Amino acid sequence: MSYLVDFKNVSTTGLESSPVAAALAGLRANEARYFKNKYDHDFTVDPASEAQESIDNVHRILKEERDIVIASRPLEATTFRVANIRWTYVFYETGLAINVMYTIDDAKKRAVGFKLSDGMEVPTELASRFKFARQKSKLAGTIRGSFFVIKGEY
Predict the structure, then answer these.
(1) 3-class SS at 64?
(2) Would you place residue 12 in the very low, low, confident or very high pLDDT band (cuts 50, 70, 90)?
(3) What phi and psi values does residue 36 have, to the nearest 5 degrees?
(4) Burial 28-42 (b: 16+ CB within 10 A, else e)
């Protein structure tokens, strides 16, 4: 069952098993606010059990592009299209959020982004490969993020 993410009243619904549930909820709300303000898109997520195709697509890109396998359990995911860009998000139990931005008509603007919730450690599978920049968010506290450009076709 889809869940509309409310960025005005942040809720941990669907994320309760995360040790950083409040921070992850803030990160998810931060993304929802971005899409509402930039594209007037309502950000909805599905439980991982109902979004396996989205999760599998993200995991395939990570494996094929950088030989990365995420150890954490996915809690929620979503895939949607706005402004000729296909977006996929997966939110993990550790507090990690991964997004894939895949432009439909411009292969030069495709990337995988990693965001770490406030209070979580950098996952072992990412620690030696990426440097994480910090940004402040009213909803999520300090978010650490990194990315890589997608080279293949998916």
Answers:
(1) helix
(2) very high
(3) -70, -45
(4) bbbbbbebeeeeebe
Burial class (CB in 10 A: 0-12, 13-18, 19+), 131: exposed
Say how far apart CA 128 and CA 70 lie, in whole Å: 14
Strand order of the sheet with strand 96-103? 3-4, 44-47, 74-82, 85-92, 96-103, 110-116, 141-149, 133-137
What distance in Å separates the CA atoms of residue 15 and residue 9, rounded to the nearest whole number? 15
Number of H helices, E strands in the chain: 3, 8
How far apart CA 18 and CA 75 sit, in angstroms, is 9
Whole-model pTM? 0.95
| 83 conformational bin, left if phi > 0, alpha if psi -120 to 50, beta if neither | left
